[in-house]
Amino acid sequence: MAAAAAKKLGILVALLALLVGPSAGLLGIGISIGSGTDCTVFVGWPLPVILRSLICGLLGQPYTPPIWRDEPTGAGLSVGYYNNPRNTDAYCPGAETAVRNAVEKAIYQQGRGIGAGLIRLFFHDAFVRGCDASVLLRTTALAGTNTEMEGPPNKDSLRGFDVIDAAKEATKAACGNRVSCADILAFAARDASDILSGGNIRYPVPAGRYDGRESFAKETGQLPGPDSSLQELQMMFAAQGLSTADMVTLSGAHSIGQARCLFFTGRLAAMDSDYARRLNTACNGTGSPNNRVDQDPVSATVLDNQYYKNIDKFVLFGSDAVLVSSPETKQQVDVNKANLTSRWESDFAAAMVKMGNIGVKTALVPSETEIREVCWRVNA
């Protein structure tokens, strides 16, 4: 029976390689089968829903689509949460400064790329189970070690965990275990945005989140991927209660940081020819898929609106290029390109706050939420 299943899976993989094009070979195909209640398919995530359903059906498992959320309001959160002495159990006036110091130290010691990693870490947390620091967990009761860290969009890709750990220890030194890892991650992404933008992106972060106690690799299928179509991007952001405008705005984070070659070498022909040749050399063709290149070839170390100026021929991912494929999104790209009165910076700040409100847990519920002593594991 196992041999038959393996043969069926092999046929499916071969068919999918033809269906989804060259990126399938670069990104790989992973299929996770649950205990009879779910089926997750990763093909350079995300795979169109129809194909996911087809694959899961052929394998005898129903496909579980992403959770759809209402527009995030941040109810229960408040700015200055740890500075309010009326929040007796959470009072920690040095909390945000402690996080800021940890982020500044990391960027000074490790380079500006670690700041980009913190912004991405925040994004990857928000889109799976909401902003509850589930992305930080290495093991949980139900998932074992198969947590979000092991999901195809995250495995060997995310960075910044050490910075969050250092910030957690700093807040504990300041006031004990009062500051959640989820809030620390939100503060760190805010501080990184401020530093990397040269102070052009500043915003207050509402806090009061609790940490979740579960994390599953299979749920990372809710994250948009480098080959996502515009329709897939819109669907996946809408599933989190975010608008198309939020999607275009937050995509500007690709103006900083690096990407592995395996995520874009399949679309070099669509890029500026000289740029494509440089990338092909850096990636050794397709021979060095884990080599990394700057996402922005113009201002690689600054979080700015250069990304929107690059979209025509100088962006790495198909999911970036598709933003000019419809009149609605192209209009916003053009506005962000002009960046009159720093509109994109203010929009980005607002979108980061909105994303930080996704699925927040603001009450202490036994066996479900807590303030973790250590960010990478649940409390005993």
TrEMBL record:
Active site per the UniProt annotation: 124
Domain Plant heme peroxidase family profile: 76-379
CC annotations in GO: extracellular region
Catalytic activity: 2 a phenolic donor + H2O2 = 2 a phenolic radical donor + 2 H2O
Highest taxon, organism lineage: Eukaryota
Cofactor note: Binds 1 heme b (iron(II)-protoporphyrin IX) group per subunit. Binds 2 calcium ions per subunit.
Protein name: Peroxidase
InterPro entries the UniProt entry points to: Haem_peroxidase (IPR002016), Haem_peroxidase_sf (IPR010255), Peroxidase_pln (IPR000823), Peroxidases_AS (IPR019794), Peroxidases_heam-ligand_BS (IPR019793), Secretory_peroxidase (IPR033905)
Cofactor dependence: heme b; Ca(2+)
Lineage: Eukaryota, Viridiplantae, Streptophyta, Embryophyta, Tracheophyta
